[in-house]
Amino acid sequence: MPEKSPFKQVDEKHVSAEVTCMRWSPKMDLIVVANVQAEVILYRLSWQKVWTLPAPCEHCKVTCLAWRTDGKVVAVGYDTGQMQLCDVENASCLHSVTLSGAITAICWVSGAMLEGGGTEADDTTEDVFQDMSSHYLPRLPAFSKGINKGCFMGREDNVEDSKRLKGQKDLNILVTGTAAGRVSLYAYGVFPVGEVDLSRHGIGKSGHILHASLSEDLYLLSLLLQTHREDAGSRDVYLMSFDTTLLASRHKQLQTLALKFGQLLSLMTYLHTTIEQMQEAWEDILLEMDSKLQKFAEEKNKVCGGSVSNDFLQLLMFGIPSDELQVFLLHDLTEKGLKKLGHSIETSYSNIQKLVLKHLHSVGLAIVYHLEDIRGMSLWYDKFGVLGLSTATVQQAVAVAGSFMLKASELQQVIDGSMKNLKAFFWWLYVVIQQLSDEPVPPELSKMTEQDLNFVAHFLKENFTEELDGRQSGFKLEKVGQYLKNEELHDPPDGSTNPWVDFLEHNPKLQESSLLYRACPTKSLVQMHDSLKKSVDVTVQHSAAVVGQSLQCVSTSHLFTLPHSESERTSPNPDSHNSAGSMTVKCTCTRPSPVTLYLVRNFTSFDRRSQETGHWS
């Protein structure tokens, strides 16, 4: 007769693939499951499927899962080193980072025991650093429907909070460990606040992190790891403890800084989506016009020589086209083709112009505002300097953001000028084609003003250029698309007549001022965007490096050794538990005989900093 169990099975469900790991939600009746196909599936308690997150790439595996403490975000770690933060409502990827090595451990801890744990002056930190951006910055406009918006999907009413940080009152930290022996800490899962490389602590390059846990008062970081002995083929299992007092003593400043950077990262995501839409709105149809003109120039050079620009200027001044130009207009370009070309250009440029005016300028202004806020924090060294916030790196990011805004304004001016000149040029060509075809010209188009003629003449001068060898004509009708490519501008605007540029050239000392944003005349908008991302990353990583240096190893304990005969088929099963003033790490070793349980309790406060170790078989 089987023994009675105190646990009663209430249900049994089948899944489509073998389950590798699962985690219950800390707040709701939800369970997230990962299978051997690297899919992540969210179920309700009734086993109703909520959503499925497909594998990010082929031949990858989900290694670990973790819930944010409020149950609104799920962290997924892969053996490729990629970590994704997914919205629990729709599985959209809120944030993604790639680490050096397969992710083997994830722990998300809330600083629930931090009340009164900071310095005495910390009580006024929240009053000093109230976020006033909502009072000074307009709300970012939502993106148009029917396009792929990534993490903005379903949240058009709050695009400023794409990282889902709004309403976070307590600091929470995501701890990740990799097979390469590196530990990374992220405030709210997005802001890096420290990194530990175990190879610098006498463990060696073969350190493999099995479990990582952070005490809820943020005073102690515990790591369970294994190393391989190359000579014997066995594995040693260690428990390492790190003092993280800096995180606990400066948790309010860290929370303020992390939330500010979270806002900044949300804006950077919005900016990236805006530029993607601009690239989608741009059409390279003008390149077709360029190729037709190029072909016409080559044929003209073979037959009779001369330049295309002279033919067009002769047509503009005297109204008489050359024989070659007449054939080109009537048979190659055609009235129908010209109408289609003009409509496509007007639609494309109008869409890009709306994105620049409505989205790009708004998000650029917000980025500069938040970076200036962070620069102000960096000037208060007593509060934020110890967290690695460098004024020099933040100022560099502010300067790049200002240069990006100048480039956005430059693009807007290029769009305005291109639309004005192209419209006049196509209008004039349409009238010419109608006259050459003996077709009636609408009265509203038959009369061209002197201003229209000046637009056309200026367009021909700027876009129909003669090469130095005199054998080939070059055409530059399209000037907007070059800003949306990751390469330098092939036809940058001429700033020699700009009085401000002339003023700076005659006052070189002003160019060294941090109050002035520098223009980058040869850089494209995409290149400036990349520079902005790099400068923000440098600011973030500098802070993480400084905090990481403060994490000191206080103890290293050897738990057990797995012999070569058992090392491949036996793996430890670690876990941890937080309580007031202490953290307990549990580890079971399922060797054939006997099964061993290790319990290690670390006291986290200064006056009780010690370790108790016990094991049972």
Automatic annotation (TrEMBL):
GO cellular component: anaphase-promoting complex; nuclear periphery
Start and end residues of each stretch annotated as Disordered: 564-584
PANTHER family listed in its UniProt record: ANAPHASE PROMOTING COMPLEX SUBUNIT 4 APC4, ANAPHASE-PROMOTING COMPLEX SUBUNIT 4
Protein's recorded name: Anaphase-promoting complex subunit 4
InterPro entries in the cross-refs: APC4, Apc4-like_WD40_dom, APC4_long_dom, WD40/YVTN_repeat-like_dom_sf, WD40_repeat_dom_sf, WD40_rpt
Gene3D superfamilies per record: YVTN repeat-like/Quinoprotein amine dehydrogenase
SMART domains, alphabetized: WD40
Domain Anaphase-promoting complex subunit 4-like WD40 intervals: 22-109
Residue ranges of every copy of the Anaphase-promoting complex subunit 4 long domain listed in the record: 238-439
Composition skew (Polar residues), residue ranges: 570-584
TM regions (residue ranges): none
Keyword Phosphoprotein: no
Entry keywords, A to Z: Cell cycle, Cell division, Mitosis, Ubl conjugation pathway
UniProt source species: Ridgeia piscesae (Tubeworm)
Any one biological process term the GO annotation gives: anaphase-promoting complex-dependent catabolic process
Pfam families given in the database record: ANAPC4, ANAPC4_WD40
